[in-house]
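Fold it.
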Amino acid sequence: MTERYGISQPVRRSEDVRFLSGRGTYADDVNVAGQSHASFVRSAFAHGTIRSIDFADARRAPGVIAVFTGEDLRSAGLKGIVARTLAGRVDMEPPLHTPRPGLAQDVVRHVGEPVAVVIAETRALADDAAALVRIEIDERPAVTRIAGALRPGAPVVWDTAPNNLGNVWRHGDRAAADAAFAHAAHVTRLRLHNNRILANPLEARASLASYDPKTDRYTLIASTQGVQYFMEVLCQQVFDLPRERMRVLTYDVGGGFGVKEQPMPEDVTILFAAKAIGRPVKWSGSRAEHFLSDNHSRDADIEAALALDAAGNFTALHVAVDEAMGAYFACNGVGMPLRNMTNGLPLVYRTPVITVDVRLVMTHTNSVGPYRGAGREQAAYVVERLIDEAARETGRDAVELRRRNMIPPSAMPYKTPVGRSYDSGEFEAVLDKALKLAGWATYESRRDASAAAGKLRGRGLACYLENVGGGFVREGAKIRFNAGGQVDVVVAAQSQGQGHETSFRQVVAGRLGVPYDAVRLHQGDSDDAPGGLATIASRSMIMAGSAMFKTCNAAIEKGRLIAAHLLEAAAGDIEFADGAFRVAGTDRKITLLELAARLRTWSERPADCPDSLDSTEEFLAPDQFYPNGCHVCEIEIDPETGVITVDRYAAVDDVGIVVNPMIVHGQVHGGVAQGLGQVLSEAIVYSAEGQLLTGSFMDYAMPRAIDQPALAVDFHEVPCLTNPLGVKGVGEAGMVGALPAVMNAIADALAARGKRIDFDMPATPEKLWRALNG
């Protein structure tokens, strides 16, 4: 059982039986006795002063229980949601304070911002009454694009930021960079844009709030990426409550991708309303509300430069980024450009000098928060686009230029110019494996065949490295041995489709040597969850997995002491293997589960023996972790129409030890699909007045199955040396590799016609047609 279900086995996802048979439980599936329903009234303007809110007609409407505005929340002392303080070595000027209220107070700052809420007996009645609320807003000029927000005299989002700058941050040795660029044999410069997109999980957000006056305690049932992070924001930021007065519950989650990591204004408002009316309040967001209210992602203007010496060695890299933050800082919004992008540089390449300038820009749009990649894709996009362009400009082979500058395994651990320390990596071996998998050597024949068919073919290569997991943070795990002979594992991480119920159980079953089916995973209850954060930043198997492994070890050590008494031997003579304790050199043994059962009835237990094997441990991350890989993409363009087809795609990823190959392959596939979506079709677009023009799937072009190529995926496992499982994280790898690989393929195809990319993502057929036809 251990061999079949332990680490590195392609165990089928056990949770899929529940999902495919319709027995999943999502937030909108949960109902409680006496619940009411909420409908939010949202701003129709991107910017304006609230003059009045008339809800008299709505309050008299059938079934209406209450109507609340921002003034009610302010009077109750609720505070706004703010940016999470960055941990670690991030030196920046004090940022703008942008408290995001549950309901707008005095000013609206983006279209769709909630201004009032109607609570009624049913959602239909609440929606009908919400249509009767009359809000008078004195409209003010708005700004939605970065360049416009930075223009002198532009409309301001916050009076305390008259230039619309929420933060200015600089990193690196300026004098050394200036010298390197001044003496460079060649400098490649690019202006890029990371297009604004929206995470679109299958399950939109939904929440159910209640309040118990007897215990003075709130309960929120929500679709989250981790109950502990919700607890942190709600208790410490918004309600100023001790943890004992708040409980957050999460059941099954239909996708997250970053958009469900933090509480949102609707969660805050219905918690307030539940206490105010003395009844539970439920809100189920529609897809339209998802577009209007959830955090968006990306949106950055980038200027980058790469300096090379005469031999083609990289000597300096400079990246200047203006990153849109929207109207309010998302909880982790500032971390993407300041920490994740910067810490990802210089990818897998020796680059002695790196400087980074970041300006966080406020706009009258939805807040910008993390989405799969979360700044790491931006680092890869910048560097890999620069390298391909440098190769074209200098007449060098793009593969050999990369190979010349790669950090060798002998340099590990490698301290980067931005202060990170790579513990392991075989970057050139990954490159060679990807080239072989992609059929790099036989490309010309496929290019000629495309040309014969009237098509333009291009290929793109991208080597990436991520910084994931979060340095100097803790994640806990609990293991309990119950009377039924089962092992209960409790974590703060929260699955949103990643397969935790399978892979986490593999870790525990493999280490304890117990049957896979004896292990049960528990998640999503802040009352029971150990210390930790959430399933974000590709950190779950690294952090929660390592915590589970350490907790297993703690249980084994307890068992070793107890087994010594039961088997009448010295503790040093007790061996543990295959789920059993044995006296070395003998056949005397007792299994772990037998020992756990014996403890429950052992009346003569010695005083120095633990009373159970139940254990709790934490894993402290010594730094970040560094998955890496190489992706190769081949595309065809129809020059008559600009239609692009992704014909071939190969990916080789070093994600450390692979716990479940099938699940990890699926993570890479999903990330690549989302990367293709951003490159080829997805874009959030606002009008000059701040109206959202892409507010539904009629206007926002999601990738479809027909757009996805067959993927050739393989691994190159180099164990991570800084966690006990040797894993590096895989959740965002596909996305991070896809953006530069596909755009480099497009650039290669255009170069064959003497053209350059003079447009931003997404690379739509219209843009490609215009680029090819002048």
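DSSP finds 21 helices and 28 strands in the chain.
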